[in-house]
Amino acid sequence: MSKIALDLRGLLCPLPVIRVQDKIKTLQQGDELEVTCTDPGVMHDIPTWCRINGHSVLASRSSDYEFILNLQVGGSDGD
Q1: In 10 A of CB 51, how many CB atoms?
Q2: Helix, strand or coil for residue 37?
Q3: Structural domains in the chain?
Q4: Distance CA 2, CA 71 (A)
Q5: Are 60 and 37 in contact (CB under 8 A)?
Q6: How confident is the model at residue 78 (pLDDT cuts 50, 70, 90)?
Q7: Helix axes 42-53, 15-24, angle to 10 degrees
Q8: Rg for the chain (alpha carbons), in Å?
Q9: Diameter of the chain measured on Cα atoms
Q10: pLDDT tens readout for residues 14-55
């Protein structure tokens, strides 16, 4: 199992979700992805995308103007 960080600061919707989707396609089931963003919309958009595509949100938090989500890759990528 790998733990990967993905810095998406400065990107606005829909780019954070697209970049998460692209990165998850390169990972294995069970891998963890920590995503750091500055667009507050990710706190809704990424968990919704994860639920639809079979991935899990392990934790989410905000710090100053950053929004951090910890995801676990599930068995489906929506393809």
Answers
A1: 12
A2: strand
A3: 3-72 (3.30.110.40)
A4: 12
A5: no
A6: very low
A7: 40
A8: 11
A9: 35
A10: 999 999 999 999 999 999 999 999 999 999 999 999 999 999
Residue with tokens 């710090």: 63
8 CB contacts (<8 Å, ≥6 apart)? 15, 16, 19, 20, 35, 36, 37, 38, 39, 42
Residue positions annotated with a catalytic role: 13
What residues pair up with 1 in beta bridges, in sequence order? none
Classify residue 24 as left (phi > 0), alpha (psi -120 to 50) or beta.
alpha
**11: Cβ contacts below 8 Å, ≥ 6 apart:** 19, 37, 38, 39
Number of residues that this document lists for the chain: 79
Cβ atoms of 31 and 73 closer than 8 Å:
yes
Buried b (16+ CB within 10 A) or exposed e, 4-32: eebebeebeeeebbebbbebbeebeeebb
Say how far apart CA 76 and CA 79 lie, in whole Å.
Answer: 7
